Amino acid sequence: MDKLNVMNSFVHVAEKGSYTAAAQHLSKTKALMSTHVSQLESELQVRLIHRSTRGIQLTEAGKAYYEQAKRILDDISMVEVSLKNDQQQIAGRLRISAPTTFGECILMPFVAEFINVHPNIKIDVVLNDRFVDLVSEGYDLAIRIGQLEDSDLIAVPVGLMTLKACASPTFIEQHGMPLVPQELSSLPAVYDTNHKGRSLRRCYKEGESFSFPIQSIISVNNALASARLAVHGNLFTISPNFAVDPFLKTGQLQQLLSDYDFGSYPVNAMYSHRKYLQQKVNVFNQALKKHMNQ
């Protein structure tokens, strides 16, 4: 049995959540992936994966073995790269969770640049708007926007997300340009449900706070979708800068009340205390921070 090859198959099955997805990623057959896991369980004399009609789930032994196997495979990759190149190169795989719109607008262009600089790193990005469990779900890094709850994870600030009120030129022509925040209350809006506190929005100017309700005609759980609705509909939106900025540059949207601050949220890269992750995660985080602050 080729232990490293079998170990690599198991790690991919654990991360992808199915034999089929892991087989496709590694360009192997589903039957071979199943055989590799069975060989590993036979060798270790312990069950690593629970199989059911709803999918697969790692056992406690499987979770422990996954952590060690991933570390070993990454260490081998790092050794190979360090022998071929300088010590600043990173290798192995990095599995990342990120919010959908942030991932589409910010993370994907950055990742494309990052892998050009670090060709030996393999990146697996999963975009969704839920908080994943990094350790149990096999993630190395998670991007989270907003105030953080207490946890055992390490948080590295990489940037800031600001909110902007925007509408199309057609909307402004029909409704006029609002002069004070309270005027937004009588205007039709699209509401991004990722924002908490639907009935009341808040903005600031010269140290003074202004609260106002919004009249949401449409609700959607995606910031980019909210921005697109404002482009094509008779609606205004209060959305993250990374969702509306491309439309502001083309003139498809115009900023409303630009002298008011509609709030901002920190963007953090979260990772666990696993020491073997330190180098590649640090390199990734510092590069992302530089990219977001250009």
TrEMBL record:
InterPro entries: LysR-type_TF_proteobact-type, LysR_HTH_N, LysR_subst-bd, WH-like_DNA-bd_sf, WH_DNA-bd_sf
Any one GO molecular function term: DNA-binding transcription factor activity
Top-rank taxon, per record: Bacteria
Domain annotation HTH lysR-type: ranges: 1-59
Protein keywords: DNA-binding, Transcription, Transcription regulation
Membership in a protein family: Belongs to the LysR transcriptional regulatory family.
Protein name: LysR family transcriptional regulator
